[in-house]
Specification:
The protein has 69 residues and is mostly helical. The protein has one domain. The chain is 57% helix and 0% strand. It is built from 4 helices and no strands. The protein is globular, with a radius of gyration of 12 Å. The chain starts with a helix and ends with a helix. InterPro entries: CH_2 (IPR010441), CH_dom_sf (IPR036872), Sperm_flagellar-bone_growth (IPR052634). This is CH-like domain-containing protein.
Length: 69
């Protein structure tokens, strides 16, 4: 199952970052925002921070919250 998910993320979606460890790579919320943006659900993706800092995680998940409600 994990292999199928990694193939979808890396070969079909072609995210900006090659995903190798789903939990670690998605921890900041940036890649989830990127997926939602590509599916036209995250219109403020330009405001996301591509960083693993605590501030970036807080910002990214605050931006994701309304979309995920």
């Amino acid at each position: 199952m994990a292999d199928l998910l990694l193939r979808w993320l890396n070969h079909e979606l072609e995210l900006s970052t090659h995903v190798t460890h789903v939990e670690a790579d998605f921890a900041s919320g940036y890649l989830l925002g990127e997926i939602l943006h590509r599916l036209n659900h995250q219109h403020d993706f330009a405001d996301f921070m591509r960083s693993s800092s605590a501030d970036a995680k807080i910002l990214n998940f605050c931006l994701l919250e309304p979309t995920l409600r």
